[in-house]
Structures are given as C-alpha cells and as structure tokens.
C-alpha cells in the first residue's frame, strides 16, 4: 500500500515524542529501538507509541483534510453513476479488468489493448481513443486515483462548497448582527427596516459608499441566513427572547444518579382560569412544583391564587419530603388534622401494575431554584439549611438550567389544561373570545384535577427523556424510573422528625409576659406559657433573653411554641380568636388596619378584622387588594375543612375531567365504582305547586310605570 496518506517507518525514520526528537535504530517484534538527541536509547512498544497523539513522524502530512466518506455520501445518483463508470475505466487501464481484478472477471476480459502485459502508454492510448478524451486527462485520472482512491475521480464541479454568506463584506455582516441583537427585547421589525438601519449605520460609521452592500434580493437572503433559528422575523417574540438566552457553547446538564439528588423548584402562571367561591368570578392561578430530576416525577405541587409566596414554595418542598401530605400542604399552614404518617405501599402481587396515584416523596440533597424572591427568601433558605439541603440557584435568564421543568409545564398545558373549561391559551394570539366566562373549576378543584392527572397518567406514561445507558432503546415512565433508581441506590434517607413541618414556618423572637406573647400587635396566650411567664429565656446570641415563636403568614390567628422542657409543640391562640371565628392572614391584618385608619383615628384589630372578614364572607370585596386577600382566605378555609373531615370533592365525576383522565370512556357514564354525580333538582320556595298552578285570574294585573313608582320615593313638602 503506497500513497500520500501513508508513512514508512524503518531504520533512520525520525519522530517527535515527549518533547524530544528520536531516530529509529532498530525494529523488533513489537518494539521500536529509538535513540534520542542526547544519545540515550529507549525501547518503546510500537502500538502504544503510535497511538500516542503527541507523536509526530517526520515527513508526515498532518494537514487536516475532508473525510472522503462525506464526499461520497453527498453524491447524487447521476454523480454516483458517473463515478462508477470512470472508476471502471481507470481500473481497466491499470489492471486490464473493469472490477480491478477482484471477483470474477467479465467475459472477454482483459480486452485487446488493455492486456496488463502491454506497456501502460499503449493502454492509455487505447482508452483515450475509446472515450474520446486526451491522454493527459487519463493521466490525471490515474494520478488522482492513486493518491486519493475513488474520491479522486469525483467531478468536483458539482460538489463545490457554497457559503450562504460568502462574498459579502464582513463589515456589512457584522452590522446586521448588531442590529438584530438590538431587537432581541423589542417588537418584531421587518427585513426592510433592518436593512435600512444597517445602511444608515454603515454610512455614518464608514462613509457613504465605502462598504459594498449586496443587492436587494441577495441582502434579504443573507439576512434570512443570519437570523435563522432566532425567531427574528417569524415565530413569537417570547420565543425570540428565550432563544437569545440560550448558552452559546456546548450545553451542559445536571446528571443525577439517584432519586432526590436534584430537586427542581419553579413556578409558572397557568393558562387556565379558576373560580373563586366568594363572588364566583375568575381568578388567575400560579402553579409551583417540585420535580425529581432523576425520574422526572412531580414530588410536590401547590396552586396559589394570583401570585406565589415564599411560604408556598416552602410547603411544596415540605410535600416533596413528606409524601401523601396533600391536606397538610393544601391550606398553606398547619391543618387541624395534623401531619399524616408516611405511607408505605406494599409490593403488588404477580401480574399487578405498580400504579399508586399521588406524588412520590424524596429526601432532596440539592435544590435548583430561580433567582425569584420566593425562592431566595430567608424563609426557604433557612429551611434548607436546617435540613441539610444545598440550594443551587439557576443562572438568570437561562431556561435551559431547568429545561425539564419548562418541558413539563408545556406538557401540562398541551395535554391537560387545554381540555379544561376556562383555558385561555399560551398567548394573546391563542386566546378565545371569552375564556373568563367559561371558568368552571374552583381553585381547590383545579388542584385536584392536576394532581389526578399527574398521579394517574403523567407518572405512568413513557417519557422520552428517561433512559438506561446500559439498555439502549428501553423507555421508562417516571414511576418506573423512580422504582429503578430506588432499587439501584439501595438506601433511603427519610426525615427523622414527624414535627418537621414547623421548620417550614418562619420564626419570631419575643419575650413572654404575664399576658402571653405579642406578635405584630396581636397577643397570643396558652397554658404552655405558664412556666415561662416573665422569665428570661436561656437562648443567647442576637436574640438574647427572648423566646422563639413560629407563625404562619397565612393564618396569624395562632402561633406555635416549643416547650424547651420536653421539646413538644403547643398552639397559642389569639386573645380575640373567639370574635373572629375563621383564620386570617398577616396580609389581611395589615390591610384591615389600613382600612380602619381611613375611618377612625385609632385601630381596633378585633373590629377591623371582623369587618373585613365579614365582607369576605358576604362577597362584598371592593377592590383588587381585598379580592386577592379574600381568595387566599377562602381557599385556606376550604382546605382546613377538607383536612378536618378527610373528604375531598369527586373531581373525577366531572364530564370534562373524565374525558381527559379516562380517555375512551363515554362522558355520560360515571367511572366504575363511582355513583352518579347527578343531584336532584332543587326548587325554591316560590316554585311550589300552588303558585305554579294558579289560574290566570289569580295573577296580578298589569301595573303601569306611574303606579309602580308611586310609593317608591317620599314626597317632601
């Protein structure tokens, strides 16, 4: 084998290795004996030496060249046919056989004039006369074949590489990129406007006519090439900003090896409206989820009216650490039913499907969060620190750091939300005529729908992002991947304290007086404070002499105190809790005080709260602030009631939900084991049979407008 792509190693060959030049002085079975520049002799293993990328042979052509395989694969059928014919002619000149002497020869080969015993010059002349080409052309074909093989015979006139932006002034290209980058956060421009701004900038910077600009058609083609894949002129502008925020280099990723290693926390406004029970009006909702990156399982979620608060994010994390804690986390505070025990599911029998509705629980080690205030608040960071959990903030404006969560939000929208009443679409272009008027689910019902879809469908459906490297092609569902990870890990780290929920509540340091403790102007008391009244606490540090009290911003009608004697937790009620029989948040208290100041000089917390909560119950909210507080308070009370009674609405009976979660089942039939949701017709007291069966003579006579309003207004003298 000879050619320009080979190098012969023999005695005297020089090579560079390990920073020195060596000369081959001997060849053994699998060894090369080398002499260095200083005279030392080295015995090197031949295969190991040649495999070292730092070894360079003297005289070897190290210039990178295009791989011939890509050239051959890029040929059209006509070019392949032409190459095959040319290769057969060259091989017949060299060997006398069109197939190169490999395999069975064609009948009649070698033909007269191509006998290998004839001089090569005579064979050139015979082939030139046959093809009607010059001998010089044949010599070039043979030389190219000997140097590069069949690739050398390719007619490169049809395979030349063409740069889409070739021939255009680099200054014009750079200015186009600058103008396009300036429109990343702006509204979408037209190509005409961008080209006009490029021309004006170039004229101002280099002078009129100094930079050669391409023609109109060519300029638009080059501009389209420069903006390819950026949504600069097509697609949504939101997508344009997202594309611009992508990493410019190689994409990196977190590579989890077990469940709970990385937990992704994120919030998003849902593209569906919910109904608030106070005024039966629509309200926007935000979804906060915790996702286990290893299995793509949703381990915690929470729907919040209007906006998400830091306590919502903390309670989502709590649900991820304590599975089957739906009632515990649905109200945003400690419910009356207390913290449920950890549910252990027995292994199903043979042939049964291991499907358990609900969310998986993990003991997180690292949490990836946004830079939002709710995730970087002292509340959430303090909880993670106390539990030994690392917090890893994602890079700002880099959605690829949490691509799995972003993809889940899209799947949720496309496969669940768009089938629900009140769906408004992902943008204004997809919005219906009146999505607010189609709102059907209350906030707690909507959360039940999302939980049911995740637990029964999403977790048991094949996920394209889950795979086992040792078994290529095997697709897992999140539930299967979670079980696979737990079996491979061989260990499970679980929370050790059942009262861990108090770690998710913020702490306030107060002194214990004879009347109890005071927090935000409210006084709390309870029998647990009796041994510590008017005493200095043993705590030292920044809060020397004070006692720690836990409170919930969504319900400041009570606080929680841990007895240092036995470490048990006790509830301290507000002194006027009997006058306000429902829970209220710190936001409601602050707003009620501000409301009372507009009509009275001094603030009475009891009267102000009673007045505000009365308006909440009566549906008399007067402005967006009151309405937002009322929605959160109403959702809180409903969740407390559900936690206390252990019941929840049968969302699965709703026709639309059955159509989504039980595909193929008629919507007019209830699922197996579920009674019909039809309720008897309810009639009012004015629909009794006696009134409905009146004869025409019993109906009141038609009254004129003057007689109707005769007594409506009092006539003053």
Task: Indicate the topology.
Blueprint: E1 14-17, E2 20-27, E3 31-36, E4 41-45, H1 46-51, E5 56-57, H2 68-73, H3 77-95, H4 120-131, H5 135-148, H6 170-182, H7 191-206, H8 216-226, H9 237-244, E6 262-269, E7 274-276, E8 281-283, E9 285-292, E10 297-305, H10 310-321, H11 326-329, E11 366-369, H12 378-386, E12 390-393, H13 403-415, H14 443-456, E13 463-468, E14 471-476, H15 478-489, E15 507-510, E16 517-519, E17 522-525, E18 547-552, E19 555-562, E20 569-574, H16 586-597, H17 605-618, H18 624-645, H19 655-661, H20 689-692, H21 705-708
Parallel strand pairs: 6-11, 11-12
Antiparallel strand pairs: 1-2, 1-5, 2-3, 3-4, 6-9, 7-8, 9-10, 13-14, 15-18, 16-17, 17-20, 18-19, 19-20
Provide an overview of this structure:
By secondary structure, this protein is an alpha+beta fold. It folds into 5 domains: 1-63, SH3 type barrels (Roll), CATH 2.30.30; 75-158, no CATH class; 170-244; 262-342 and 355-489, Ribonuclease H-like superfamily/Ribonuclease H (Nucleotidyltransferase, domain 5); 507-620, no CATH class. It is 32% helix and 15% strand. The strands form 5 sheets. Strands 15-18-19-20-17-16 form a 6-stranded antiparallel β-sheet, with no helix packed on it. Strands 4-3-2-1-5 form a 5-stranded antiparallel β-sheet. A 5-stranded mixed β-sheet has the order 10-9-6-11-12, with helices on both faces. Helix 3 packs across helix 5 (135-148), helix 4 (120-131) crosses helix 5 (135-148) and helix 17 (605-618) crosses helix 18. The chain starts with 13 loop residues before the first strand and ends in a 9-residue tail after the last helix. Mean pLDDT is 73; it is low at 325-358, 643-651, 667-700 and 712-717.
């Amino acid at each position: 084998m000879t050619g320009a792509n080979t190098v012969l190693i023999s005695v005297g060959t020089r090579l560079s290795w390990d920073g020195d030049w060596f000369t081959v002085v001997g060849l053994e079975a699998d060894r090369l004996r080398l002499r260095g520049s200083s005279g030392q002799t080295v015995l090197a293993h031949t295969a190991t030496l040649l495999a070292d990328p730092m070894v360079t042979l003297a005289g070897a052509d190290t210039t990178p060249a295009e791989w011939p395989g890509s050239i051959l694969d890029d040929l059209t059928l006509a070019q392949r046919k032409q190459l095959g014919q040319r290769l057969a002619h060259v091989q017949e000149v060299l060997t006398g056989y069109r197939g190169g002497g490999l395999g069975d020869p064609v009948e009649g080969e070698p033909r007269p004039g191509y006998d290998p015993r004839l001089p090569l010059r005579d064979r050139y002349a015979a082939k030139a006369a046959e093809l009607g080409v010059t001998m010089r052309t044949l010599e070039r074909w043979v030389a190219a074949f000997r140097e590069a093989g069949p690739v050398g015979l390719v007619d490169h006139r049809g395979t030349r590489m063409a740069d889409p932006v070739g021939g255009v002034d680099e200054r014009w290209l750079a200015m186009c990129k600058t103008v396009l980058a300036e429109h990343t956060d702006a509204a979408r421009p037209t190509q005409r406007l961008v080209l006009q701004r490029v021309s004006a900038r170039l004229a101002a910077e280099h002078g009129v006519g100094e930079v050669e600009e391409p023609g109109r058609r060519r300029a638009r083609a080059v501009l389209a090439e420069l903006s390819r894949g950026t949504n600069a002129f097509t697609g949504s502008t939101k997508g344009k900003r997202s594309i611009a925020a992508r990493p410019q280099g190689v994409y990196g990723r977190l590579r989890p090896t077990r469940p709970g290693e990385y937990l992704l926390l994120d919030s998003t406004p849902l593209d569906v409206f919910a109904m608030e029970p106070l005024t039966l009006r629509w309200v926007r909702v935000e979804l906060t989820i915790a996702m286990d990156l290893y299995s793509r399982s949703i381990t915690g979620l929470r729907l919040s009216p209007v906006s998400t608060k830091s306590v919502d994010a903390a309670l989502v994390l709590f649900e991820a650490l304590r599975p089957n804690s739906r009632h515990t986390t649905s109200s945003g505070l400690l419910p009356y039913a207390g913290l449920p025990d950890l549910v252990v599911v027995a292994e199903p029998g043979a042939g049964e499907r291991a499907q358990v509705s609900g969310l998986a629980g993990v003991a997180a080690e690292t949490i990836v969060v946004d830079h939002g205030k709710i995730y970087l608040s002292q509340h959430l960071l303090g909880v993670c620190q106390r539990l030994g959990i690392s917090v890893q903030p994602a890079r700002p404006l880099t959605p690829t750091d949490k691509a799995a969560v972003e993809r889940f939000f899209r799947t949720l929208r496309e496969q669940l939300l768009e089938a629900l009443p009140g769906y408004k679409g992902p943008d204004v272009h997809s919005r219906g005529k009146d999505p607010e008027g189609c709102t059907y689910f209350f906030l707690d019902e909507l959360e039940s729908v999302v939980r049911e879809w995740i637990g029964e469908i999403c977790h048991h459906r094949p996920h394209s992002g889950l795979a086992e490297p040792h078994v290529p092609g095997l697709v897992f569902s999140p539930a299967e991947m979670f079980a696979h990870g737990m079996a491979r890990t061989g260990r499970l780290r679980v929370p050790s304290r059942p009262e861990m929920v108090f770690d998710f509540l913020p702490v306030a340091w107060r002194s214990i007086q004879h009347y109890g403790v005071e927090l935000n102007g409210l006084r709390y008391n309870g029998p647990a404070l009796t041994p510590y009244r008017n005493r200095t606490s043993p705590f030292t540090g920044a809060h020397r002499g004070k006692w720690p009290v836990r409170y919930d911003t969504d319900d400041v009608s009570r606080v929680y105190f841990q007895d240092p004697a036995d470490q048990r937790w006790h509830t301290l009620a507000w002194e006027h809790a009997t006058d306000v029989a429902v829970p209220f948040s710190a936001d409601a208290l602050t707003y009620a005080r501000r409301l009372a100041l507009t009509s009275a000089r001094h603030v009475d917390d009891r009267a102000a709260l009673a007045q505000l909560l009365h308006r909440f119950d009566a549906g008399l909210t007067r402005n967006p602030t009151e309405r937002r507080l009322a929605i959160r308070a109403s959702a809180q009370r409903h969740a407390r009631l559900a936690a206390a009674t252990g019941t929840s609405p049968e969302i699965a009976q709703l026709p639309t939900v059955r159509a989504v979660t039980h595909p193929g089942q008629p919507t007019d039939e209830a699922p197996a084991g579920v009674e019909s949701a039809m309720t008897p017709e309810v009639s009012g007291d004015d629909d009794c049979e006696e009134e409905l069966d009146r004869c025409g003579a019993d109906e009141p006579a038609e009254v004129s407008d003057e007689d109707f309003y005769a007594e409506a207004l009092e006539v003053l003298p």
